[in-house]
Each structure stands twice: as C-alpha cells, then as structure tokens.
C-alpha cells in the first residue's frame, strides 16, 4: 500500500524544488568572500540563525523516527526533546558561545587548534568529516527507503534528485544559502505537519495520556526500574547519558548545528540563537509525541493500521505517513511531502555545509595548502561541496548493499562527539588543560567508545558492567557508552595535563574562562539579555517535566 | 545591491502554497474528499492561515538587509 499523489500534489512538490534552487541562484551573487561562503557574512539575526540552528537538526528521519518511537515507547521520547536538548542548548548559549564567537574561528576544530594545537584539530576534523559524510549517506539511504515505501518512488531517482538539489544550492550560496533554505524549510515542516496533530486531537477527543498504559504515560515516574518502562532505561541513564553527555556532546560541539550560530552578527546575537531554538525544540513534541500517541490510540481502536514488513512486523516509522494519508486530502498531502523532504534536505545541507568548512579550513588549509588565498578557498568550498555530495551518495549505496553497516555508522556519533565534549569543556573552563592532555584524552575517549560498542555488540563483556542492566535496550547501551567515553576522556585529559606543559596565559586569551572578557550584556535592557530568555526557557522545561512526571 | 531578507522568501512560499491549498479547499466544498474529518474543510482554513502568515512575513521582509 502506498499513498497516491494527484496532479496538485506534484505541482506543490515541484514548486518546492523550484523555490529552494531559486533561492540558491539568487544568493550566488552575494557570495564572494570566504566569510560570505563559510559564515554567511556573519550578518544573521538571532531569529534567522536560531531557526536555521534548529532546522539543521530537524531531519525528516528524526520526525518520522520519533513519531514511531512514541508509538512504541510512549512519552518517554519527549526526553530527547526536553532534558536531552534544552539544558545543553542553554549552556552553549550562556557559557560556551562567548569563547566560540569571540575567537572568530570558522569551525569547532578551529577552536581546538587555537586552544590546543594542530594535532588535536586534525584528529577532530578528520573524524568529524568522516562522520558527517557517512551520516549524510545513511540519511539519504533511509530517506529514499521511506519515500519508496510510502509513496512508491524510485529509489535511485529519490537519492539523486535530493542530492543534486542540496549540492546545487549549497555550492551556489554556501552557508548563506543553507541558512536561507533552512529557515524556509522550518516553516514548511511546521505548516506541513502541525495540522496532523490538530486534526488528530480533534478526532480522538479526550485525554490521550489517561488511556495509555502507565509505563508509557509518564516521563519519570517509572524510571527507577528499567523493567517498568518500555525503553528499559533508568533515570541515571537518562540524566547522565542523554541529558548530560549525549546532549551536551551534540548541541555544544557538533559543528553541524553550532556553525549556524557562528553566522550571527555579534556575540549577543550568537548567544540568543540557541536560546530561541530551545523554545521551538520544546514545542516539536506536539508533532512527534502528539502524532505518535494519536496513532497509538487510533491503532488500538482498530481505526488505522500501520505498515507491516514482509515478516509481519509493524513498521513504527509509518505512524506519521499513515496519519497524513488519513487526514490530508490532495493538496495538503502535497504539502506534507515537501515538509518531510524539507526536513531531510535541511539536515543534509547542514551536513554538507559543515563538511565543506571543516575540509577547507581544518584539513586542506591546515595540512595541504597553508598559503591558499581567500578566493581559492571559496573555490575549494564549492568544489568540495560537490565531492561531499558524491561521497554521500556513495555512502548511501554502500548502506543499501550492506544494511548491517548502518548500526556501526549510527554509533559513530557517540564515538566522536561524547568524548569531544569533555575535551572542549576542560579546554574552556580549566586553563591547566594542555595540548597533549587534550589529544590523548580525546583519542582515549574515541577508542574506548569504539571498543565498548564492539564489546556490547558481540557479548565480550557482561552488559551489566556498563549499563547496570542484564538486558539493556540499544538505546540504553548508547546512553551508557556515551557516559563512559566522556568520563574516560575527561579523566585521561586531566591526568596527562597534570604531567605535561600547559600554554601560557597570553596564548589562551579569548579561549578560556577567566582569561576572556565576559560579554557586556548589562548595557542591554532586560528583554534583550540572553540570560533572561534562557531562564524563561529553563522554567518552561521544568514545568513540562513536572506536569508529565 | 541589498539582499532580500529571508522573511521575504518565507512570505512568498507561504502565500503561493496558501493560495493553492485554499483553491483545493474550495474544490472540496463541492466535491468532498473521503479523508477523515473532511467535513471540517481543513484545506480551506489551513490554507487561509498559511496565506495570512505569508502576508505577514512578506510585509516584514519587504526591503532591507539580511534580518
């Protein structure tokens, strides 16, 4: 069974491609210098950068995947949008952004170079570039799989059209183009999918939470015992693994999202960017958790049926497409498809624009051609965008040929980002952290995470040792592995730093707390201060957690 | 030459899509679709909201720098 499209749906889909390529063509003439191409000219407002910041994180797969996960796990999935995101976004804004922004770097590896040395930068740049391309490829593969399954689209055509479109507009306008289209896509995602939640709530009437099994209806009440919640995870796993390491590792160090804040026009604007994004991040569960619960309720009544695979297993990710097919007449269906496409392409553009910057500044200019001119770097940025797209398509075909490889690729995130957070945290807040400490700590964290992944996967060790559960879910494994990798990096960095030579204070100005002037926000009225809006965001987070306890 | 702000593009996209969705909504008044809750005419009012949003964004983004 697939969702059939009518002529009006196709018109809307074709217009979508026309719009975003048109924006890329329009912005081409404004993209002249390296700062234009790689940092969007550093002239974005906090709203533009903030919406792009969130949009780069919002993939179609995330929206479909978490709606499906809610169908399976209940409102536990909201942890990934609330405690698993908001504290980290606010911490980035208030405490880390001043160092990132004031140092006028192009990328996160660029920070590592100035704070530590070249070897730490190259280690992170190479691992980030590989991770980005592989993640980009796997997302492309899964997107094509989804459009093939739900709409009956040809696999190869889906891959190539979306890849060429993203490649074209990023190569034309660089980060400016990526940010513009991400903001447009942000609105398409909301207008395309929010109506599902509205119509669903109208149809099911009543309070969905009261009808859910107790294990699925609360955020924290069943988290003391892993056997009592569907995710099989305990609250320390959620707080340490998700709320602390994975979340902080992603939101504060992943260049894919942080790059959007670098495009801001001043440090206050850069600080406001993740704070504005935090409000919208907290609201996304209206679509994903709301959609998943509505699908669960209608499915339990026999009103709808989700897709099943050839073995008869339910495909949870089909929850949102099934609801779209239920509520959306033609025209609105056409709007739902670009909403999913927009989610995919925004994430894809985020991957590619981050990849081209890291390659150009942190690998090519740092290692291969140190004296490259500004104009040459812009040319290289465009060229490597095309290469990045081709490599992503290659990775997508690789994943298609060997589907089991996807488990490894998806785990790469916690190999790279979880330990990196320890390195940057110590680098920014402890001036005694040395270049050698950072390098060996990061290396130890990455290798140990990889080893733990293999050990859990192939049963080399008792899972209880790492996860405090004899039967942990994959999710629980991920959370605990991230925590241990972070801790190993943290401890090794401190130990090595205590025995090696630190940089002097003069070299660390602008990169370490205590040696960097704090942003002057006192001259701003209360309503323009980042700390005020961060506090409101934090209060909303607390209220949500208490309400859904 | 000044760059048109992103809100201009958001406004254009929402207006074009809003008009198309309203058009389909008018069609469904006379030819009801077989989707759930079709009696609520979601295309009509959702298209209207998109159109309104598009006009607001277009008025914000008319002229000016990258804001």
Q: Could you characterize what this model shows?
A:
- The complex is a heterodimer of chains A (549) and B (67).
- With 549 residues, chain A is mainly alpha-helical.
- Chain A has one domain: Sodium/glucose cotransporter (Up-down Bundle).
- Chain A is built from 22 helices and no strands.
- The longest helix of chain A is centred in the N-terminal third of the chain and has 50 residues, at 155-204.
- Chain A is globular.
- The mean pLDDT of chain A is 83.
- Chain B has 67 residues and is mostly helical.
- Chain B has one domain.
- Chain B is 67% helix and 0% strand.
- Chain B contains two helices and no strands.
- The longest helix of chain B has 25 residues, at 6-30.
- The model of chain B has no long low-confidence stretch (mean pLDDT 86).
- Classes of the chains: A mainly alpha (549), B mainly alpha (67).
Summarize the structure in short.
With 549 residues, chain A is an all-alpha fold. Helices cover 73% and strands 0% of the residues of chain A. Chain A starts with 6 loop residues before the first helix and ends with a helix.
Give helix % range of chain A. over 70%
For the record, the CATH architecture of chain A stands as: Up-down Bundle
**Strands of chain A, total number:** 0
CATH H level, superfamily name of chain A: Sodium/glucose cotransporter
Please indicate the count of domains of chain B: 1
Separation of the first and last Cα atoms of chain B? 15 Å
Regarding CATH, which class of chain A? Mainly Alpha
Taken as a percent bin, the fraction of beta residues of chain A is under 5%
